[in-house]
Every structure is written in C-alpha cells, then in structure tokens.
Write a structure and sequence with these properties.
- The protein starts with a helix and ends with a helix.
- The relative contact order is 0.14.
- The chain is built from 10 helices and no strands.
- 71% of the residues lie in helices and 0% in strands.
- Helix 2 (21-31) packs antiparallel against helix 10, helix 5 packs antiparallel against helix 6 (78-92) and helix 9 runs antiparallel to helix 10 (182-200).
- The protein has one domain (3-200): DhaL domain (Serine Threonine Protein Phosphatase 5, Tetratricopeptide repeat, Alpha Horseshoe).
- It has helices at residues 3-19, 21-31, 36-49, 51-55, 59-73, 78-92, 99-117, 127-139, 144-157, 182-200.
C-alpha cells in the first residue's frame, strides 16, 4: 500500500461523500438534523486538502490523521463516530496488513464506535452497515472487493424498516420507520469507494 494507493483511497472516499452530500442531507432531513451531508462533506474536503501529506504517512498514522480531521471538522455525532472508527483502525492495523489483520482491526474499531455511541446492531445507525461488512470481510473468500459493496448496500437498505433506538432519529420513535439511516448510507458509500480502488489495483 504505497503513497499513490493511499492517495487514491483518500480521493475515492472524499469524492463519494462530496458527490452524495445532497442525498445524505435529504436522508438526514427526514429523521435527523438535516446536516449529515454538509458535515460529512466539510470533513472530507478537509481530508482531501491534506491528502498528499496524509498519504505520505505510514498507514496507521494516515488513518489517525484522517480520524483527527473528521473529529475536528465534522459536526454532530458523525465526526466523533467516524473519527473514532478511523483512529481505531489506525491503532489496530500494522503498516502492511494482511486481509485477516485488516478484518480484525475493523472489528476492534467497530467496538470503539459501539462504546463511543453507546449503540449496537439493530438500532438504525452506521453500525448496521459496518458490522455485516466486517463479518463478510472476516469470512474472506473470492472477490471481496466486489462483494463487500453489495453487502453494505443491502445492509443500508435494511435500516429502512428499522425503528431508531439511538441518535437524533430515536426522538421520532415509530416515525423513524420507513427512512434509510443517513449514517448507514454514508458508511455504505465509503465501503463502495474503498473497494473500487482495490478493484482497480
């Protein structure tokens, strides 16, 4: 995973979030504060502005830098949660991880997100995408970079009939049912972006 590859990963993630900012805002307007798209866009624009500097770092340090940027620039709950995810990955990953090490690191980072958000699977959050993606990643098999985006998209779709238990959407109770969770959607977009770069490698 050389500097150019890390730069392409950063660019793909940022481009995916920025391109879908209006969609994320619309999803969040239905069940939240309506700021998820704008906040995520702001955060990834900040990451993109430092992309060359971040990409020059070893992978663990690059992830920690991304996490810090998201914590500092993304408002609401999303900044701390995505920042925690990235920094957790940075702490758990070696500089040149195997697929098994990456899957284990993602599991540890997800535990950090659970603790930070006091949430778990089935509560209509980003975890409803991250947990099944990690499970599919850990199971390994062929064409991971092709299969994981489909797992993520299906998991995001599965949040539509859920009742929100955590976050701003939980205030709506039954009215949160019938809407996709914006954090689940942004997580799905990021999985798709990361896998697209691996598919091109």
């Amino acid at each position: 995973m050389d500097q150019d590859f890390k730069r392409r990963l950063i660019g793909a993630m940022a481009d995916a979030v920025i391109a879908h900012a209006e969609e994320l805002t619309a999803l969040d307007s239905a069940i939240g504060d309506g700021d998820h798209g704008l906040n995520m866009k702001r955060g990834f624009e900040a990451v993109l502005a430092e992309a060359d500097t971040i990409a020059a770092k070893p992978l663990p340090d690059a992830l920690k830098a991304i996490g810090m940027a998201l914590v500092m620039k993304v408002g609401g709950a999303s900044g701390p949660l995505y920042g925690t995810l990235a920094m957790g990955l940075g702490k758990a990953l070696p500089a040149e991880p195997t697929a098994a090490e990456a899957a284990m690191a993602l599991a540890r980072a997800i535990e950090d997100v659970k603790a930070r958000g006091k949430s778990d699977a089935g509560q209509k959050t980003m975890l409803d995408v991250l947990i099944p993606v990690q499970a599919a990643f850990a199971a390994n098999g062929d064409d991971l970079a092709t299969r994981l985006p489909a797992v993520a998209a299906q998991a995001a779709d599965a949040t539509v009939p859920m009742k929100a238990i955590r976050g701003r959407a939980s205030f709506l109770g039954e009215r949160s049912i019938g809407h996709m969770d914006p954090g689940a959607r942004s997580s799905s977009l990021l999985v798709q972006a990361i896998c697209s770069v691996f598919n091109e490698a």
